[in-house]
């Protein structure tokens, strides 16, 4: 199944699934941050909260199974399978993983915007892309 073959309800379901998955990854990274690294933990928690804030709240019927949603999401977010390589996430690895997720999320929304057939959907996806690009700049320049 390809993204361009999906209807708007399925794309919105993917947005919700992606947001929940990415927010969960941020929270997992926050829990893995070294016990004394409160600024890194707060960075991950803040990124998770921002993703959840923009999560589409309405439910629409979808023809996608959970397995199909998961497969599509994993295809857009390859960094979900990257391990920090250590028991605790350090600043360098943590900010790298956060940067990867933010870049992938921006690319995901850019793809959805390019495929949108109506102006309202295109605007929604472009706004989400711009928000992720803003997060990317923040993550790249944050001083922990």
The top-level CATH class is Mainly Alpha
| End-to-end separation | 41 Å
The figure for the number of domains is: 1
| CATH topology label | Ferritin
- Tell me the major beta sheet: none
How many helices?
5
CATH architecture: Up-down Bundle
Order of helices and strands: HHHHH
CATH superfamily: Ferritin, core subunit, four-helix bundle
Shape: globular
Mean pLDDT: 89
Strand content: under 5%
**Poorly predicted tracts of residues:** none
In percent, how helical is the residue content?
55-70%
Describe this structure in words.
With 144 residues, the chain is an all-alpha fold. The protein has a single domain, classed as Ferritin, core subunit, four-helix bundle (Ferritin). Helices cover 69% and strands 0% of the residues. The protein has five helices and no strands. Helix 1 (8-32) packs antiparallel against helix 2. The radius of gyration is 15 Å and the shape is globular.
């Amino acid at each position: 199944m390809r993204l361009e073959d999906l209807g708007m309800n399925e794309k919105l379901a993917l947005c919700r699934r992606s947001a929940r998955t990415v927010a969960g990854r941020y929270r997992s990274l926050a829990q893995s941050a070294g016990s004394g690294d409160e600024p890194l933990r707060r960075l991950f928690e803040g990124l998770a909260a921002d993703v959840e804030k923009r999560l589409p709240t309405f439910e629409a019927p979808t023809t996608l199974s959970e397995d199909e949603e998961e497969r599509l999401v994993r295809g857009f977010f390859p960094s979900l399978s990257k391990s920090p390589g250590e028991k605790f996430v350090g600043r360098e690895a943590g900010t790298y993983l956060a940067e990867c997720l933010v870049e992938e999320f921006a690319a995901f929304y850019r793809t959805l915007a390019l495929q949108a057939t109506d102006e309202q959907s295109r605007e929604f996806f472009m706004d989400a892309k711009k928000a992720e690009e803003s997060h990317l700049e923040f993550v790249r320049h944050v001083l922990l």
